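[09:14] KT: can someone run the structure on this one? pasting the chain below
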Amino acid sequence: MSLPTLDDARHLTEWAPPLGVVSVYLRLDPSDRGGAWRTELHNGLSSVLDRGGLDHQAAAALRATAERIGERFANHERGLSRGEIGFVEVAAKPGAERWWSTHLAVDSAATAAFDERPLVAPLVCLLERGAPRGVALLSAERVRVLEWAPGHLEELHSWELSVFSGDWRERKAPRVVDPAHGQAVSSSGRDQFDSRLEENRHRFLGECSRLAARLTSERGWRQLLLFGAAEHRRELCQGLPSPGLAVEAGDADLISEPPGSLEEPIAMVVERLDAERDRELTERVLDETRGGTRGTAGRQETEAAMVETRVECLVLDATRAGASESLVRSALASGATVAAVAGAAAELLAPVEGVAALLRY
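[09:31] RB: done, structure tokens below
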């Protein structure tokens, strides 16, 4: 399963079929045996068909499109996905459509929506909050790298240092029982072994750092969470391309834990880090707004700054993304980033309609 990218979202904003698009955001609960999601889909499609102001041809095409979407899920079985996202051209006969299954829990105010163009704001917020992250579990002689996203954890690599092979092998002289008939064993051999072992551990973590950096680039991770002793975290950071990429997640010793036991501690750290990021960013933007410098708050001021292409980062209440569709579209078109915040940070945005922005100038 793979989500679309932000580039996909940008392309979607440019798609405008003659009769419009039905956007579907369907949340699937793997534990739901009653099929409540089917009722939600039915209700969502019914609300789409209630749309007035259409001529006979457009209304007939919309009904045919809604029927095709319903048929797609008529025999849908509960699987591993937690969400389905789709954009379907309104047409009497099957037209263009794009579908994605995702491990992320889809959260949108509308299960189905009909408009001239795809509804992309909930998708962009989902991508921003659910972007996969790298996780590195560290010890002196072993490194495991995993990919984490909400509801999904996959181990990608495990690198291990073989410390008792080849010239690493410790060689001990026979113990001399009677010192009067020979020399006692010197500690220099052991010291040399320890020194070489430490040197090779250092090289091992350095090489793992370069491998992790390459993997981070290939997978497009915005963060690499590091779990392990402080000295091992520092060594792994040295080969990463950006200092801000690595996040020291704690000194918990998780190197030998099975994947099933890792989901909870990783999710707890991600939740804490996201809450800290959301609050720091939101407070910064609101402080800039109060100072009258590089911030705007509220829909009207932010829209005006967006028209002038002054917005560097659009900050939204993630639960109100659908109400900010035009702002998200403008952000994608102008190259601005979008930050969807939740929890206490979203509460800070409540007095300003759930919208603020950090400005370029």
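[09:33] KT: thanks! Residues 6-119 form a domain with the Translation, Eukaryotic Peptide Chain Release Factor Subunit 1; Chain A fold (CATH 3.30.960.10).
[09:34] RB: yep, looked fine to me
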